[in-house]
Amino acid sequence: MKKLLLLFLILLSGCSCNFNETASEEIGINIFSEDENLIVNFVPTEKTSIKEITDGDFSHAAIISETGEVNLIDFDFYIDKEKSIFTADGEKKIENITGIYLTNKYNSITDAYYDMEEYLKNDEKVMTVLLDGFSYNQYKNAHEKDYIPFLSKYFKYPALSVVTPVTNAGFAAIITGQTPDVNGVHDRSVRQMNVDSIFEYALNNNKNSILLESDIKILNTEIEPELHIDQNKNGDTDDEMFESALRASKENFDLIFIHFHGIDDRGHSFGPYSEETMGYIKKLDEYLETLSEIWDGHIILVSDHGMHETSEGGGHGMCYQSDMVVPYFIKEK
């Protein structure tokens, strides 16, 4: 019995060693542009210039920290062994880096808050549509196939999502104008925001607003969302929300916020570029065009995050180009 126990302990010790080697594998920095991943899991072994390891003519870099903070700096910096960033003049140091977004024109999903605020400040109506899980890559794919004639007319720019690129964090960034290090929403487990949202701004300025949501409350907002159930049992609630949006468009609202989930749902189940997902993007484009014909205000359309392909279908939550870069649209009144 003692010999068997000794043999078991020896085998366990060997397995433990291999496990520790795998578990301790260092996680590096993902470097990407609006169109592609440039370097995945880059682990610097010495002080390295960004210009030495990337090709392309970029002017700026958005440095994404593990906390969700984003710092915009010139495209002339170094990365050291501790995964910290130093500007060329050595004056700025940014620590705990998870991603680097190289660009010539930086825009963020947080822009939506300031665009909404500006319209409301000018006594202009605005409808904001959150297209959950709609990546910049999917937009380009759908545009090439001529699936989205309405959206294609109003595309403005690719925008950077936030870490972690999931619905709670992206939604919070859109309605607060702040990244997770400020608004406090880092992942799916958090519903309470540390800062006011656009709905609080509307309340404080006597603007009527409505939030049309699916069957679950995502965040604790200053107004209660109008939830929807799948009444016709077709598998989602976007069609029920579309009917509510048609009604709301004819009523006295200054701000209508609609959160469509169908792209994300189909992307997870079938993959982001599947016939089911791309076909639904085409259908949603028709919904949006119909709403635009009724609504007499501005329309902002933005996604909370993108999606990458998996063996099961689709997923998101990584600091990859596919998850982090999304399309941003504005239709002026």
Structural overview:
The protein is 35% helix and 23% strand. By secondary structure, the chain is of the alpha+beta class. The protein has 2 domains: 29-103; 111-331, Alkaline Phosphatase, subunit A, CATH 3.40.720.10. The strands form 4 sheets. It has a 6-stranded mixed beta sheet, sandwiched between helices. Strands 2-1-9-4-5 form a 5-stranded mixed beta sheet, with no helix packed on it. Strand 15 and strand 16 form a beta hairpin. The longest helix has 22 residues, at 2-23. Mean pLDDT is 92; it is low at 1-25.
Protein traits:
5-stranded mixed β-sheet, alpha+beta, 17 strands, Alkaline Phosphatase, subunit A, 333 residues, globular, 2 domains, 6-stranded mixed β-sheet
**Biggest β-sheet: count, sense, barrel?**
6 strands, mixed
User: What fraction of the residues are assigned to beta strands by DSSP?
Assistant: 15-25%
Unreliable segments (pLDDT under 50, ≥5 consecutive)? 1-25
Overall pLDDT score:
92
In helices, the fraction of residues equals 25-40%
Q: Report the structural category.
A: alpha+beta
The total domain count is: 2
CATH 2nd-level architecture of the largest domain: 3-Layer(aba) Sandwich
Give the topology.
Layout: H1 2-23, E1 29-32, E2 37-42, E3 48-49, H2 50-53, E4 60-65, E5 70-74, E6 77-79, E7 85-87, E8 93-94, E9 97-103, H3 111-121, E10 126-131, H4 136-144, H5 149-153, E11 155-160, H6 167-176, H7 180-183, H8 198-204, E12 209-212, H9 238-249, E13 255-260, H10 262-270, H11 275-294, E14 298-302, E15 308-309, E16 314-315, H12 321-324, E17 325-331
Parallel strand pairs: 1-9, 10-13, 10-14, 12-13
Antiparallel strand pairs: 1-2, 3-6, 4-5, 4-9, 6-7, 7-8, 11-17, 14-17, 15-16
